[in-house]
Amino acid sequence: MFKKILIANRGEIAVRVIRTCKSMNIQTVAVYSEADAQALHVKMADEAYLIGGPRVHESYLNIDKIIEVALKTKSEAIHPGYGLLSENAHFARKCEEAGITFIGPNPEVIEQMGSKIQSRIRMEKAGVPIVPGIKQPLKDVEEAVLVANEMGYPVMLKASAGGGGIGMQLIYSAEELRKSYAGNQTRANNFFGDGAMYLEKYIQNPRHIEIQILADKQGNTVYLWERECSIQRRHQKVLEEAPSAFLDEATREKMGEAAVRAAKSLGYSNAGTIEFLVDSEKNFYFLEMNTRLQVEHPVTEEITGIDLVEKQLRLAFGEPLGFTQSEIKRNGHAIEVRIYAEDPKTFFPSPGKITKFSIPNGQNIRHELAVEENSVVTPYYDPMIAKLIVTADTRDEAIDRLHSALNSYHVEGIKTNVVFLKELTLHPAFRSGETTTNFLQRYPLSFTTI
Hints:
By secondary structure, the chain is an alpha+beta fold. The chain has three domains: about 5-105, Rossmann fold (3-Layer(aba) Sandwich), CATH 3.40.50.20; about 130-200, ATP-grasp fold, A domain (Dna Ligase, domain 1), CATH 3.30.1490.20; about 205-440, 2-Layer Sandwich (D-amino Acid Aminotransferase, Chain A, domain 1), CATH 3.30.470.20. About 35% of the residues lie in helices and about 25% in strands. It has 15 helices and 22 strands. It has helices at about 10-25, 40-45, 65-70, 90-95, 105-115, 115-125, 140-150, 175-190, 250-265, 295-305, 310-315, 395-405, 420-425, 430, 440; strands at about 5, 25-35, 45-50, 75-80, 100, 155-160, 170, 195-200, 205-215, 220-230, 230-235, 235, 240, 270-280, 285-290, 335-340, 350-355, 355-360, 365-370, 375, 385-390, 410. The strands form seven sheets. A five-stranded parallel sheet has the order 3-2-1-4-5, with helices on both faces. Strand 9 (about 205-215) and strand 10 (about 220-230) form a beta hairpin.
């Protein structure tokens, strides 16, 4: 096993990786920006190195500096976390060239799945259902209008290199498409360096359900059941749970088998996630593949008992999976909510110093934290400060436990979305499992501005 790894990330995911490494007696190297000098992951790592200014391009996206620190500290591997460089094929290739193991799939797979258009083509060839749409970038807005008119509105305009809802918009008419096209293309260029756009048919009132897979370098691949991530705002996930309250066992098995088929068709190794849209008739369609760990991975860990970060490390080292599909059990129900430093009425970030941070403890309550009391939330990064995960025997019991835990969550000095999450857990539509992706549009909560 690796003796030392560098974590090319920050916040709660860096803390999460450090925790598992400590349990495996692996030394950790943290990197940090000037804004993160007092961050929790810096304090917890065995070594920590300043790599640049507060903005991500000055530090956490500085590939050469990160590789330099890894070589200087004799780190054998780099864990990229999620976001930042986690799905950057160039970074993965630079790690390989430096003789450092990248904890994730190979660069070629990352490239293939990084293009939403190319990934759709690959998945269709692998026999995985895809959302109806085009398989090549649009030339211009006039071609977009012609395609959309033929496809029928509504349609989804998407950036081929996109993620996190950036460069994506639901379109209801040719007029709206003409008004929106240039702006979405510009955002895609700014965020991803690629303005290629394409169109998909919009699936009405879908559910967003994803399948976690693990694959070793010996060719063995398994799925670890599903997570439902349907409750979203601005295409960003708000709450995730496992298992889905909507799926029956037959559909669950078909989706798992499709995810394994997709991974095998790529020669995939390490942890990954196949995301699907599922309609009201339980037809499912490939949405995208994330070639990394997901923010919501703890709910899968809670219902399977499998530490996904530990598995990532072992698989990257070349160890076999160590279990078969039939040996993966599913126990209880887990729900995760993301705690953001933001105004619950507007969802705008709320940076500042945390003067009080009191969180609930108890059986089946788990925290993934990026902060502590007196931590400063800066305006430079994603405002997520923590994740709260609860587990219970049933979904109803998990919701009750989540609401109780949120009532005991106290943060002062900044605004948070805790009050919004508390209201969500009480909503009868959520409790009855009506969790489609337009949940917050259909059932606007009093603290939301959608």
